[in-house]
Specification:
single chain, about 80 residues, mainly alpha, two-stranded antiparallel ribbon, 2 helices, about 75% helix
C-alpha cells in the first residue's frame, strides 16, 4: 500500500473550513437556545438544556458535513 504525499494546501483549507463552520453553527445553536428560552420565559435551566440540545445537533451536522468534505477533497497526492 503506497501512501501518497500530503497536499498541505487542501489540508489547511479543510481545517480552516471546519473552524469557520464550527464557530458559525455553534454560535447559532447557543443563540437559538438562549433566545427561545428568553422568548417563552422558560428560565435559565431550560435555556442551558436547549443550548446543549442544539449544540449536540450542531455537532452532528458538523461531523456529517466534514465527512463529506474529506471524502470529496484530495488530502493526499499519489506519485
Amino acid at each position: 500500500m503506497a501512501a501518497g504525499r500530503t497536499n498541505w494546501r487542501n489540508v489547511i483549507m479543510v481545517v480552516s473550513l471546519a473552524i469557520l463552520i464550527a464557530v458559525e453553527i455553534f454560535g447559532v445553536a447557543l443563540a437559538s437556545g438562549w433566545a427561545l428560552a428568553g422568548l417563552f420565559e422558560l428560565g435559565p435551566i431550560v435555556a442551558y438544556v436547549l443550548m446543549g440540545l442544539f449544540s449536540v445537533l450542531a455537532a452532528y451536522g458538523l461531523v456529517n458535513f466534514m465527512r463529506r468534505v474529506v471524502k470529496i477533497e484530495r488530502l493526499t497526492q499519489r506519485g
